[in-house]
Amino acid sequence: MRQKGKINPVHLVDVPGHSRLRPKLEEFLPQAAAIVFVVDALETDKLTAHTKEFIRKQMEKEIEKLRASRSAVSTAVIANDFSIGIEGEVFSFSHCYNKVTVAEASGLTGETVQIQDFIREYIKP
């Protein structure tokens, strides 16, 4: 990454989202300073494209659905899991211990400034 004329190397690991590869993610999490979670939104150039705030709200709704389905499972089954969000409240990323930022980027155009800024915030030289 380049910042103020300096180039500082940053080690990035790309772990595909398939559930069979989840152990790979868990292998790198203890060493991670930050996580960039990419949601593919290929149709950003069309009129039907959604704003990043809309996508954020949709992700919060999906996580809330997961929380609701988990609460229906016996506590013995999920005893080793951790809770997500604040109990008794609808899930919001603002409840997360770690900062959550929603940003836009494009592999097609190379527009990655918002992601670079996020990484710079967590990777100090």
From TrEMBL:
Name by which UniProt lists this protein: Small GTPase superfamily ARF/SAR type
Q: Which InterPro entries match?
A: Small_GTPase_ARF/SAR
Name the UniProt key words of this record, in alphabetical order: GTP-binding, Nucleotide-binding
Q: Which organism is it from?
A: Arabidopsis suecica (Swedish thale-cress)
Name a GO molecular-function annotation: GTPase activity
